[in-house]
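Standup notes
- DV: blocked on the single-chain target, sequence here:
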Amino acid sequence: MDLSAWFPELISPLVKLSYLNLLHTAQLAFTVACSLKPSPAPSLPDSSSKTKIISYPFSPSAEDSTLSLIDEILNTWGRLDVWVCSSGLLGPASITNTTPADLQKCFEANTYAPFFALKYAPPAMGKLCEKRNYPNADVKDIKYGSIVVVGSVASSYGGCWGPCYTMSSHAALGAVRSGVAVLKGTGVRINCISPGQIDIGVDLSNFDMRGMTAQLPPASMQSKESQQSTIGLERAGLPTEVARVAGFLASGFSSYITGANLVVDGGAS
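- DV (later): unblocked, structure below
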């Protein structure tokens, strides 16, 4: 199935919301959107009318939540094909204002979800199943799956925000890198997307500067002039532009890519 036509419509809200995972079952016949606070399911193009989005309350830092969710998915649909982690937290911008509790929260938000995905999703993705009686269902007769971690350019260098954001983002990429060896022989791939400056539609007047309620800093923190001088494409990115990369990594078009960190920053790095 070619996901590229409509996947951005589904993934874009991920980039705008903290603590959100997305799981796909049965060749995207069903998509489970998981977040701490249930949110309205995003709309999809008419071409994806056979795909149903299910909102599901979920804590990405809780191991039992991950296990319960996987059990429910397998009991209901018999398979799991794609897992997208987009849980994140900025944390304080300076080390002076960072407490050990802040550091713990950032690691829970930024690294627990990728770790749990790496540990528990592959066995579920390895489950084979017969064709079931729901729209878009198909037989799964070979083991395969894709795990996509939406992180940050802070995964590879410092200075994007505060220390705990950089430290925990590095750790999230570490989960992806270590996944190459962990997943050998499973047919499951794992990759990271590292967005740079993304315009998530949040301005400074509504932004918590301690970073304890946000995943990405607002693009309005950089002036247009600054964006033009520091970003190769001279502008902030859009959630849909991150979503297209997620769609690529979720699809068979990326079948020979694993352990990669795809930087989506308009050339800023």
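- Follow-up: Helices lie at 7-16, 63-77, 100-125, 163-182, 224-230, 239-250.
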